[in-house]
Amino acid sequence: MKGDRQDPRGMIWYVLRGTMMERWKPPVELTKQEQMVMKRLNRVRPLFGFLRLNRHVLFDDAFQDQLEAMYRQSGAGDEPHPPAMLCMVVLLQGYVGASDAEAVEFAIMDRRWQMVLDCHGVDDPPFSQGALQAFRERMVKHEMDRVLLERTASLVQDGVLTKGEGQSLSKAVRVAIDSRPLAGAGRVEDTLNLLGHAARNIVRVVSKILQRPAEEICRRAGIRLLLAPSIKTGLDIDWNDSRQKATAIQIVEHQVTSLVQWVERNLDDVIEAPLRSLFDTITAIREQDLIATKEGVRIREEVAKDRRISIEDAEMRHGRKSRSKRFDGYKEHIAVALDFPAILACAVTPANRPEEEGAAPLAKDIQQQGLSIGELHVDRAYVTSPVVSSVLGSGGHVVAKPWGQRAAKPGLYSKADFKIDLRAKTITCPAGQVERIEPGETVHFDPEACGGCLHRTNCTQAAAGKGRSVSVAEDEAQQKKFRALQQTRAGRATLRERVAVEHALAHVSARKGKTARYVGARKNLFDLRRTAAIQNLEAVHRLYREAA
Ligand code: SF4
Fold this sequence. Notes:
Blueprint: E1 5-6, E2 12-16, E3 19-23, H1 32-39, H2 47-58, H3 61-74, H4 83-96, H5 100-109, H6 111-117, H7 129-141, H8 144-160, H9 163-169, E4 173-183, H10 191-210, H11 214-221, H12 231-235, H13 242-266, H14 275-289, E5 290-292, E6 297-299, E7 317-320, E8 326-337, E9 343-350, H15 356-368, E10 373-377, H16 386-393, E11 397-399, E12 419-421, E13 426-428, E14 434-436, E15 442-444, H17 447-451, H18 456-459, E16 469-471, H19 476-487, H20 489-496, H21 499-512, H22 521-547
Parallel strand pairs: 4-10, 10-11
Antiparallel strand pairs: 1-2, 2-3, 4-8, 5-6, 7-8, 8-9, 12-13, 13-14, 15-16
Helix pairs in contact: 2-6, 4-22, 5-6, 5-7, 8-22, 10-11, 10-13, 10-14, 19-20, 21-22
Iron/sulfur cluster is lined by residues 429-431, 433, 445, 449-450, 453, 455-456, 459-460, 467-468.
């Protein structure tokens, strides 16, 4: 590039919109000092060594062009650090689980970090916490976390396949999808505490605006409950007394209303963000949790759909692992290639959303890589996703376990004992009775026929005057194919291929833990993509070692 110049440490300088932008070009050859460090990286944290040897491959010119484009697009070129170097820091952070502050320290204290980042023996950190946070936000804004994941997935593909195989795979890949629960980072609170917490945040902001102590704001705004360390301490009631308990929400609601009205009266000209969003939070909690009564309000008995459960993290939700096990937060979804060990795409959805909603963003990200899904292995929960119909519609295959056909009680006929003819749209019971069926509906056999049937005791526990009923799935034809798969040895082997995604999720879990690192779905998606990128790099490292 005309006008480029190279500094002594091998960084090439580019001119972007009038700002000097460093391109990261650290040396490829190992120095003697680095060779000593490399010797110690065989067993403990070996990815440091792999990243040092292959950083020029990972951050090739094409990828660095994309990273630098983040600055060109926004026109904000005041970042003095090479984007590729900061991207490497982001990866190292994910690899060792370091906070921003720790990453800065590691860069000046840890020889492995210094070797990978090409900053041996520096006294001043090569980046600041603020630069790191700004870079992460920039990556999220420009979807570069997705690009990083794609880059690592393509390295895995290159490491496994010949060029010819790669080209044939580029048309259609075999993919497995699954998810795991992720506990949210925000505190889950009941209605009283949600309202109290939101009100406390308002007082904090108002106190800053007016430059008056929070206690004074509480007194003047008539919300003395907040003078206590917690709302429940402030209420000071006997929680075993149902009448006192019922009045608690009245007191909280009365004082929160008093605060809102006081702020509106006294700060009406400054009720913008963040105050506006705090007011909206209070409105949302009232709408979801409270119901108006003659006395004022009471807490709803039923849980509102899409109920907000935390003030700190507005997007986390109640979810279920099973009927009896609940969790609060998100679901992390990943899509794994079955012909090479790479995670291709990630998605994060609030915990209350059905699994199938995770499939669409995964499919979209796979498509972005120029790939299509030729064979999709999914958990039963994803079967109703439009992605499944789309794969089938484009001539692909879908592999999933069928829904069970267990009898209501051991000894009774199960659905498997009935003959379903999808073409004729009929169902025939073991006694030969025939009924019409419609996909997605429950068929009821003639009560008269069932009443006098010799098989009745083996067939149904329905009350007298009622007949046997059988549910026909919306995708009954597909379920029939899934059941056929389970009947053969080859079919069962195909079903077992999904274990690859379960293993990948187990590694994600071991690396990230059970609790979210960030607040909000998008930031947690960034974290998941980073983890997936690290796992892909570890896969490439494994492949290189096997090939050596
Ligand atoms: S009870 Fe009804 S559905 Fe069951 S076998 Fe007899 S006739 Fe058929």
